[in-house]
Design a protein that fits this description.
Layout (H helix, E strand, L loop, with lengths): L37 H11 L4 H16 L12 H11 L13
Length: 104
């Protein structure tokens, strides 16, 4: 295993996913806002009924991924003035359309 002293910024993902079954070494910390001790991990595994502590890590990372990663493909950013003009032109005169149905 190679060791690098440089750290990635939290917002940048690796271009290549790790191969299936690849291992990751975890160093435990004291319990804090950004770390957990091995004792805490063991207690969580016991509380959740998991036989292996690694199951807790997968569970926690899945919840974090669901919380912070977008659930949709990122777009190209804001529309240009040209694009906005084309939309306005295609939409016609505001207030002149016909109402087909209401939501309520």
């Amino acid at each position: 295993m190679q060791h690098s002293s440089s750290r990635r910024s939290p917002g940048k993902a690796s271009a290549q996913p790790a191969p299936k079954g690849a291992a990751l070494l975890m160093r435990f910390r004291e319990d804090s806002a950004t770390g957990v001790s091995r004792d805490t991990l063991t207690q969580i595994a016991r509380q959740l009924g998991y036989e292996r502590e690694s199951e807790v890590l997968h569970y926690a990372l899945r919840k974090l991924a669901d919380e912070v990663l977008p659930k949709y493909e990122l777009d190209d950013g804001p529309l240009t003035q040209k694009q906005l003009g084309a939309i306005r032109k295609a939409g016609g005169v505001p207030g002149q359309g016909k109402l087909k149905s209401t939501l309520f």
